[in-house]
Specification:
The chain has no helices and 14 strands. By secondary structure, the protein is mainly β. A 4-stranded antiparallel β-sheet has the order 3-4-5-6, with no helix packed on it. Strand 11 and strand 12 form a beta hairpin.
Length: 178
């Protein structure tokens, strides 16, 4: 039991199923930095290797810092590959193996070597979500108007095939009907 006023203690749990969800096996949390406020999210799986996983942990410092982790052994152990003092909001594993992450305030970064090194993408939008479609287009929820420290991208949705050029797909001010 918790002392009065101590709040709820969060159990950090991670499970894997090898039979389409009929049964689940608990996984160790080896390699994660976890605090009482931390939350674990599965962020991606490599298309060419289902044992190669990515996870995001919110609040590794118990306040604002998030981190991404990689596991190459079906979640038995994890290694941190990136962290940021502003929470991440977007992550994508591209078909070519590149990793892309981003925030609404700092924009997009890319890794060509499974997270060992990251490069800021020049002139990238400020993203809230990322997804790659079967055509290799990376779609992003972006800052149409800008809020707080996030600069306006003048579009709510943008896309790119090369991360260098971003096309505006939807601008909220152009909508005329519900």
């Amino acid at each position: 039991p918790n002392p009065a006023g101590a709040g709820t203690v969060r159990d950090h749990l991670l499970f894997r199923s090898n039979n389409a969800g009929t049964s689940w096996t608990p996984l160790p949390l080896t390699g994660f930095t976890l605090m009482p406020n931390s939350v674990i999210h599965i962020a991606g799986i490599r298309k060419d290797d289902a044992t190669h996983l990515y996870a995001r942990v919110e609040f590794i410092d118990n306040t604002t810092t998030d981190a991404f982790y990689v596991s190459t052994n079906s979640g038995a152990a994890w290694t941190e590959i990136d962290h940021a003092p502003n929470p991440f909001s977007a992550f994508a594993v591209r078909g070519n193996g590149d990793l892309v992450d981003g925030t609404p305030t700092t924009g997009v970064k890319v890794s060509h070597n499974d997270g060992a090194q990251w490069t800021a993408v020049a002139n990238s939008p400020h993203v809230n979500c990322l997804v790659e479609n079967s055509a290799g287009e990376l779609w992003a929820c972006t800052q149409n108007y800008g809020v707080g420290q996030a600069v306006s991208d003048d579009a709510g949705i943008m896309k790119s095939t090369d991360l260098a050029t971003w096309s505006k797909v939807l601008r909220y001010q152009d909508l005329t009907d519900a």
